[in-house]
Design goal:
single chain, mainly beta, 1 helix
Length: 76
Amino acid sequence: MACGPRADVLAQLADKAQSRRAIGLAGRAVMELFAAPDSAEWTLTLTLPDGRMCVLVLGTAFDAPNDLFPARGVPL
């Protein structure tokens, strides 16, 4: 798992034209999914409480259809 200062990892993702598409909590850490607008690449990251951001996995062919898995539960 590659980790570094959050600002550095975000700069690398911006260089790849990836922007945040999803965010969630994972215990005391923050999980974020970044993807390029052309869906060529995506990156899943985890930001730790100490400010380090870690790249968990990289992939290709990102798609986020809203109709396949509709949201359930109580809206916040």
